[in-house]
DNA sequence: TAATGCGGGTAGG
DNA sequence: CCTACCCGCATTA
């Protein structure tokens, strides 16, 4: 590594993972990592991190978001997709002014049960707000162990509030259990998911729990990475819908940007493109949809999102569950900056955010048993020592064409139009960029 | 009871 | 060839 790079490393604001140009599917991942990222509980956006293989949280593939295992038939890469968040279907406000934002149970069965419960606060049914931050599909997280490092890659921008973190949920459960075991009775209806305390409970939980994963030792080296404050402001009173594009400078945006676009991973234009960011190789192609996509004409058709057809299956349930809603669900539309991201206020690029990327995934069938697969370990068998050449990567990938589209103008309206109580949630399906196969 | 992972299998693109 | 996703199974906490 050159001296210059080292220096860059020192004052670079981006994560170690973002400094390299890699994709979770690459046969070879950066091997010369000298530094690891501190564990990030609330990753969001198209980010990459390289954690130490020793990091307990990374080992457990932890995430603040409720992520469930997804079978990608690739034993080298663990894939997880976001389940969203469970909220009160009525969007009621808890005594403390916050809103219920439960962590969806990971287990399908448990989740179904969970959804049958009622809001501990207003007794309205609970609703699962699915995540659709990745082209209308749930945000996905990928984990891969390679050498001494654990590579993490996330795709998509969560378009829903944060659920309780795992530790919060656990804390709540145990505290409830305690309460239940000691007192002779417990209001039955409170047994819901364990009630009311959505955020309220936070006050009962040891503060350390809120960020404490298994090893809370990591000082946030990258304060700009994760905001301690969820971008979704649960305290926002229902009545007053905040400025739509109000996205308070969201620190998390500052972390995910380098390196992507070149690969076709896209990066949200909303991510600051300040020059002090790392990856020097990056050549932002974002705003210029036309330039790099001469051959992508066909795709532009995808820009005509049709919430009615576009959204994946999960949607039906969505509709089903949200349809009954009345009106006071503004918060869905107004408080999810992710869906209506903005960078510089007033920036036209504001709505172009949710760009997604379809990365080619090398399907690596696992296990030798069945078909005489070439050992899927090929991925790992690569001489770990071989130095990783980002340059190589770039050239290889440059064969692809990044297609980009701008959000249709109506995206802007989605917000104001949404008065029906549910359609707003399906208004913006990006699918703006695609990675073209040669 | 759940969280997690795994992997077989399906559907749609 | 992929991706998303459903389902059951096993292990662990």
TrEMBL record:
<keyword id="KW-0238">DNA-binding</keyword>
<dbReference type="InterPro" id="IPR039791">
    <property type="entry name" value="GCM"/>
</dbReference>
<dbReference type="InterPro" id="IPR043020">
    <property type="entry name" value="GCM_large"/>
</dbReference>
<keyword id="KW-0217">Developmental protein</keyword>
<keyword id="KW-0539">Nucleus</keyword>
<protein>
    <submittedName>
        <fullName>Chorion-specific transcription factor GCMb</fullName>
    </submittedName>
</protein>
<dbReference type="GO" id="GO:0001228">
    <property type="term" value="F:DNA-binding transcription activator activity, RNA polymerase II-specific"/>
</dbReference>
<dbReference type="InterPro" id="IPR043021">
    <property type="entry name" value="GCM_small"/>
</dbReference>
<dbReference type="GO" id="GO:0000978">
    <property type="term" value="F:RNA polymerase II cis-regulatory region sequence-specific DNA binding"/>
</dbReference>
<feature type="region of interest" description="Disordered">
    <location>
        <begin position="224"/>
        <end position="252"/>
    </location>
</feature>
<feature type="domain" description="GCM">
    <location>
        <begin position="20"/>
        <end position="175"/>
    </location>
</feature>
<dbReference type="Pfam" id="PF03615">
    <property type="entry name" value="GCM"/>
</dbReference>
<feature type="compositionally biased region" description="Low complexity">
    <location>
        <begin position="288"/>
        <end position="304"/>
    </location>
</feature>
<dbReference type="GO" id="GO:0042063">
    <property type="term" value="P:gliogenesis"/>
</dbReference>
<keyword id="KW-0804">Transcription</keyword>
<keyword id="KW-0805">Transcription regulation</keyword>
<feature type="region of interest" description="Disordered">
    <location>
        <begin position="156"/>
        <end position="190"/>
    </location>
</feature>
<dbReference type="InterPro" id="IPR036115">
    <property type="entry name" value="GCM_dom_sf"/>
</dbReference>
<feature type="compositionally biased region" description="Basic and acidic residues">
    <location>
        <begin position="156"/>
        <end position="173"/>
    </location>
</feature>
<dbReference type="InterPro" id="IPR003902">
    <property type="entry name" value="Tscrpt_reg_GCM"/>
</dbReference>
<feature type="region of interest" description="Disordered">
    <location>
        <begin position="285"/>
        <end position="320"/>
    </location>
</feature>
<dbReference type="GO" id="GO:0005634">
    <property type="term" value="C:nucleus"/>
</dbReference>
């Amino acid at each position: 590594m050159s001296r210059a790079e080292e220096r860059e490393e020192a004052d670079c604001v981006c994560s170690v993972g973002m400094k390299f140009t890699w994709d979770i599917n690459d046969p070879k991942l950066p091997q010369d990592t000298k530094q690891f990222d501190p564990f990030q509980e609330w990753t969001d956006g198209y980010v990459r991190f390289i954690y130490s293989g020793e990091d307990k949280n990374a080992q457990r593939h932890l995430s603040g978001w409720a992520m469930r295992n997804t079978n990608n038939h690739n034993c080298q890469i663990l894939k997880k997709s976001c389940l969203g968040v469970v909220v009160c279907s009525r969007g009621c406000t808890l005594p403390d002014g916050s809103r219920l934002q439960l962590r969806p149970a990971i287990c399908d069965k448990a989740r179904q049960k969970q959804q049958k419960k009622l809001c501990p606060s207003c007794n309205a049914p609970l609703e699962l707000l699915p995540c659709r931050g990745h082209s209308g599909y749930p945000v996905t997280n990928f984990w891969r162990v390679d050498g001494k490092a654990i590579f993490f890659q996330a795709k998509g921008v969560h378009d829903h509030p944060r659920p309780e973190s795992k530790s919060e949920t656990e804390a709540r459960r145990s505290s409830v259990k305690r309460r239940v075991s000691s007192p002779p009775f417990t209001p039955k209806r409170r047994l819901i998911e364990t009630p009311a305390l959505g955020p309220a409970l936070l006050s009962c939980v040891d503060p350390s729990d809120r960020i404490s994963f298994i090893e809370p030792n990591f000082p946030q080296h990258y304060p700009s990475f994760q905001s301690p404050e969820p971008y979704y402001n649960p305290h926002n009173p229902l009545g007053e819908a905040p400025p739509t594009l109000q996205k308070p400078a969201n620190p998390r945006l500052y972390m995910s940007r380098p390196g992507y676009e070149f690969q076709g991973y896209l990066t949200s234009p909303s991510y600051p493109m300040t020059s002090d960011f790392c990856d020097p190789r990056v050549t932002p192609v974002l705003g210029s949809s036309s330039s790099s996509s001469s051959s992508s004409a066909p795709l532009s058709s995808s820009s005509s999102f049709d919430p009615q057809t576009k959204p994946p299956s999960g949607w039906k349930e969505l509709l089903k569950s949200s349809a009954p809603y009345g009106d006071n669900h503004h918060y869905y539309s107004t408080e999810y900056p992710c869906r209506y991201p903005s960078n510089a206020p007033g920036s036209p690029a504001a709505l172009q955010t949710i760009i997604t990327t379809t990365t080619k995934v090398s399907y690596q069938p696992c296990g030798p048993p069945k078909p005489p697969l070439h050992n899927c370990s090929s991925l790992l068998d690569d001489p770990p020592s071989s130095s990783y050449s980002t340059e190589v990567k770039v050239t290889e990938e440059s064969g692809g064409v990044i297609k980009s589209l701008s959000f249709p103008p109506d995206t802007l309206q989605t917000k104001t139009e949404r008065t029906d109580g549910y359609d707003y949630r399906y208004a913006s399906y990006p699918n703006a960029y695609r990675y073209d196969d040669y």
